[in-house]
Amino acid sequence: MSGSMTRCDRTPAWQALQAQYAATGRSLDLREAFAADPRRFADFSQDAPHVFADLSKNLVDTPTQGLLLDLARQCGLEQHRDAMFAGENINRTENRAVMHFLLRNPPPAHDGKGDAAPEKIADELRQVHETLDAMLAYAEQVRQDPAITDIVNIGIGGSDLGPQMAVLALDEFRLPGKRLHFVSNIDGQELAAVLAQRRPENTLFLIASKTFSTIETMTNAASAKHWFEAQGGTHIARHFAALTTNVAAARDFGISTTFGFWDWVGGRYSLWSAIGLPLAIAIGAQGFREFLGGAHAMDNHFRSAPLAQNLPVRLGLLDVWYRNFHGFTSRSIAPYSSALRRLPAYLQQLEMESNGKRVDLDGQALPFATAPVLWGEPGTNGQHAYFQMLHQGTDVVPVEFVAVKRAARSLPGHHSKLLANVLAQAQALMQGKKDAGGHQHFPGNRPSTLLLLEALTPASLGALIALQEHRVFVSGAIWGINSFDQWGVELGKVLAKDLESRLDSGDAAGLDGSTAGLLQRLRAS
Ligand code: F6P
Description:
Layout: H1 12-25, H2 30-36, H3 40-43, E1 45-48, E2 51-54, H4 62-75, H5 77-85, H6 119-143, E3 150-154, H7 161-169, E4 179-183, H8 188-195, E5 203-208, H9 215-230, H10 236-239, E6 240-244, H11 247-253, E7 258-260, H12 277-304, H13 311-326, E8 330-336, H14 343-355, E9 373-375, H15 387-392, E10 399-406, H16 414-431, E11 448-455, H17 458-479, H18 490-505, H19 513-523
Parallel strand pairs: 3-4, 3-5, 5-6, 6-7, 8-9, 8-10, 10-11
Antiparallel strand pairs: 1-2, 2-11
Bound molecules: 6-O-phosphono-beta-D-fructofuranose.
C-alpha cells in the first residue's frame, strides 16, 4: 500500500464496524429511527455547493456514522486526498498524477495571491488556462459561424459519455441552430445514420480520443473523413478538429486543428478538458466557465470541509457500508429529470471503470468486495419498468434519486407531478405497506439518498459531477485500490484484433471450441 494509506480491512474501525453491523446495523429500522429522533432529517442531510443531500433515509445511525468516519481517518483518506491535490503520482500502476481538479481551478493570480495551486503544479495550471482560452475562443468562433449547423463528436467511453450527458443536461442553454450528434459505436449503423442527414459544408467533426488510438474512434473518424471527401468536402482544417493528448497522431491522420490535454487527466475524468468542447460549443464560453466554477466549488468543499460534513466523504462511506457490511451488490441511479437521462450511463463508467478492481495498490487480491453495479433510468420511466423489483424484490438496492427543484422549460402542472413522484418513491421504499395477503405487502426499510439541485444549470451540473468523482475517490481510497487505471479493458481489445484477422482468414488454430465454432458459423455463406 502507498505511504500513508492503510487498507480498510486492516484497521480497528473495520472490526468495530463488523461488530456494529452484527449488533444493531443489520436490524436498523428507518421508521423507528425517524420516530425516535426528530432531528434525523437535519442530522443526516448535508448542504454542499449547489447540491443538497438528504441522507436520512439511509440505513445508518450516529454510532455507525462515527465508526465510518474513524475508518476514513484510519485508512488515511485525508492524506490520500491531499496527495491528489498536491499532484503526487497516486495513479501508481501508470506512474501518473491525477489532476482533473486542476482543469477547473481558476487561473493563477497575476499578483501571486488568490486561489493558488501548489508550486509543483503551477506550471501545469498555466498550460491548462492557455488551452482552455484557446478552446473557448474556438467554441465561440464555431458558435458565430452560421455555416456550421451540425457538430458530430466521434469518441467513446470518457470521450463520449461525459460530453453527451452534459450537452443533453444543459440543452436549455444550447445555442439554437447548432445541433450536436454523438457517435461512439463501431457499429457502422450509428455513423451512417448521422451522416445520411448531413452536408459536409455544414458539418464540424470533433475527433475526441485521449490516446488517438481507440479502434472504434479511429474507424469512425476514418469513415467520416472518407465520407467528407467523397461528398466533395474540402478544407479538412475547417471541418475536423481533434481533442487529444496525442497531437502527433492527430496530425498524421490529417487534422491540424487540435486541442490538447495531459496524461494526468483520466478518460472518464476528461469532460473538463478539451473533451468538453461539444459542451462549450453548445452553451458558450461563459457557460462552460460556470460549469468549471461549480465543479471547483465542490473541489473546495471536498478539500476543506470536515469529514463529518463533507458530502463526497459521506456518500463514499455509505457506499462502503452498503457494499462491505450489508452486502448490497448494486446501486440504482434515478434522475427525476429527463435532461439527466444519460447520467446513469456516465456514472457507470465513472464508478465501475474506476473501482471495479480486485487487487489493492500492491497487487494483492482483496478479501472484500469493491464497486457495486450501477444502473438506472430517468424517473418516472423507471417506475413503470423495474421499480417493482426495488419495492418488492428479494434484493435490497439502495437508490440514488436526483431531483431538480425549479423546472426548466416544463409545461404547466408537469413539474409538481414529477417532484411528487420522486418524494413518493423514496417514501414508499422506506415506509412500505403492510398486507397480510403477501402480494400487496411492501417490506419497506429500503434505503435511498436524494440529491437536490435548486436548478439544473452549468454550475450545478459541474458540482454534481465533481461530487460523484470525489465520492468514487473516497470509496476507492478506503478499499485501497487504484481508482485511476483501467487494465481490465485491455485484454478484449487485443483479442478483438486477433479475431478480426481470423474472421478474414478463417484460421481457428489454437482457439477454444466455442470461439472456433462461432468463427466458423460467422464465416459460413
Ligand atoms: O477502453 C477504455 C478506455 O480507455 C476508457 O478509459 C476511455 O474513456 C475510452 O477507452 C476512450 O479512450 P480514448 O479517449 O483514448 O479514445
